[in-house]
Amino acid sequence: MSAQDSCLSLIKYLLFVFNLFFFVLGSLIFCFGIWILIDKTSFVSFVGLSFMPLQIWSKALAISGILTMGLALLGCVGALKELRCLLGLYFGILLLLFAMQITLGILISTQRTRLERRVKDIVMETIQRYHAHPEESAAEESWDYVQFQLRCCGWNSPRDWFSIPSLSSNESEVHRVPCSCYNSSASNDSAVFEKLSFPHFSRLGPLARPRHSTDLCLVPANSDIYSEGCARSLQKWLHNNLISIVGICLGVGLLELSFMTLSIFLCRNLDQVYDRLARH
């Protein structure tokens, strides 16, 4: 066997092994998403997410798993069987994904102001419609979870909640905000803890009961709530995690470039191998 044949065999099996790994990874992601869809109750108790956001994430995981499995299968079969059509399709899909990522990065960089304005509009619309339609609460529950995790309240400040009709009370002039604004580390109020004992606020203690769409958990705005708006908290989070985000993006991009290089090299050199076999 010549050195070139040995090199091609090495590339072939490297491509196969790497794609086999990603096929297994995609299978695990898919199974994880399906498990969340089927066994929502136990997963809610484990991670503390409410049902609607959990359903969205589970479907996203399942779809991501299927796409990863499909792409990895193309790479595995194309490399192992030395099929130029599959290797070419594999290269084309990777190239398309890489181009989409580059385009997305450029759009985010150039349209940052417009994007920030759009996100603000969506959040403010969610706040304005908070619990106006209890049966359509996916966006509201997701925003509750964001406030809880980022330890913030409102978009600009807690005052964003003061004019919301569903949060106002005729019995008192004290403004009220959702329980996701409550700063549990600043108080030991057991009455508020009882209000907060919903699945997606499970950091505060054991679960007392599941949240239903008719529940509305509120606390007075003059109690121990987060004083910072989520716009500022989100900026801090992005600043603190910028290196990790850039590193992940670069890692994914380099991985895609490596797979594209291996697949196109193998695809282009298969002709030479076929020619030599035909002569013999």
UniProtKB/TrEMBL annotation:
Membrane-spanning parts: 13-38, 86-108, 242-266
InterPro entries in the cross-refs: Tetraspanin/Peripherin, Tetraspanin_animals, Tetraspanin_CS, Tetraspanin_EC2_sf
Keywords: Membrane, Transmembrane, Transmembrane helix
Transmembrane among keywords: yes
Cellular compartments annotated: Membrane
Claim: Transmembrane helix is one of the keywords in the record: yes
Membrane topology label: Multi-pass membrane protein
Domain of life according to the entry: Eukaryota
Protein family per UniProt: Belongs to the tetraspanin (TM4SF) family.
Protein name, as recorded: Tetraspanin
Organism: Felis catus (Cat)
Lineage: Eukaryota, Metazoa, Chordata, Craniata, Vertebrata
